[in-house]
Amino acid sequence: FNTDAIKRVMVSKGGFGAQYGDRLSSVIAVTELDGNRKKFEADVNISLIAASATVQMPVWSFGSIAGSFRRTYIDQTYAKFIKGIPNYYFDDGNLTGKFQLDDRDNLTLNYFGSEDNLNYQFDTSSPNSPEVLYNWWNSFASAKWDHIFGNKVLSDFLVSYSGFVSNFGIKNLVALTERNTISNYTAKESLRYYASNETTLRFGAAYQRTGVTYDLGTSDGEIDLDIPTHKVTAYAIASWHPDPLWEIEAGLRFEQFRSSATFTHLDPRFSVKYRLTQTSSLKFATGVYHQYMD
User: Fold this and answer.
1) CA 289 to CA 268: how far, in whole Å?
2) Is the CB of residue 73 less than 8 Å from the CB of residue 108?
3) Residues 112-127 pLDDT 10s
4) How far apart are CA 13 and CA 196, in angstroms?
5) Given its phi and psi angles, is residue 172 left (phi above 0), alpha (psi -120 to 50 degrees) or beta?
6) Residues facing residue 286 across a β-bridge
C-alpha cells in the first residue's frame, strides 16, 4: 500500500461479521484519504530507491480531490552501475474525489493503478544471453453513492471494477510465453437502519462477475483457459449496544457461487465484544465461513 494515500486501515484477524464473505481467516479494510476541502496541500518524498508525491485540494465548496503517485528508480540508478541487479521498477497511483451533492447525497470516485516491470538478462555483455521478461498490472475503479433516507436510514450503492494482467516470457533459452488476466465487476447495495440508540440493523446485497483467462505458449503447443464465475450475496446484521462497554452482534449471510458447478450456503455469524480500555477489548466470535476458488 501507498501509505501516503491511506487514511485508515482496519484489520480483522477472524470472527468478522456477515457483511464480509469469501474469506476464511481475515479481512483488511482500507479507507483512502478524504482530501483537504479547505486548502491546497502537497507532500513530496524522495529516497534512495523511490520518489512519491501526494496532492490534496478542494473542488469549489462541495468536494475535494486527493491523488498520490510513486515510482522506484532502481532501474535508472543501481541497475546501471552494479552488476547483477535486475532491471526492475514499479509505479502506482491513487486518485479519489469526494463530492457533496446536497444535504442527503454524497458521491465518491476512486481509481488505483499499478505496474511492475522486470527485465533480467543473465549476461548483459552477450546479446544472445537468456533473458527473463515479466510485467504485471493492477487496476481498480469505483463509484459510490451515499444517500440518507429520513433520519434513520443510510444507503450506500457501489459499482466497481478491478483487474489484473501479467505477462511472462523467456528469450534465447526456451520458447515460452505466459499471459494471465483476472477481471471483476461488482454492484453492491448496503442499508443501515438506526432503530434506536442501542440497536442498529444492517442489510446488503451484491452481484459479482469474475473472469479468469490463462494463455501458455511453448514450442510443444498452447494452453488457453477462459473461466467465468458469478456470485450473488446478501446479508442481515443486528447490532445491540446495551451500554458503551458491550457490543453484541448477530448476522446471517447468503452466498451463491456459480462456475462449472453451483454452490449455495447460509452462513450464521455471532460475536460479543467487551471494551476494556480505549485501545483494547475482549471479543468472542463464532460463525460459518466459505471461500471459493474463483
Assistant:
1) 8
2) no
3) 999 999 988 888 778 8
4) 29
5) left
6) 270
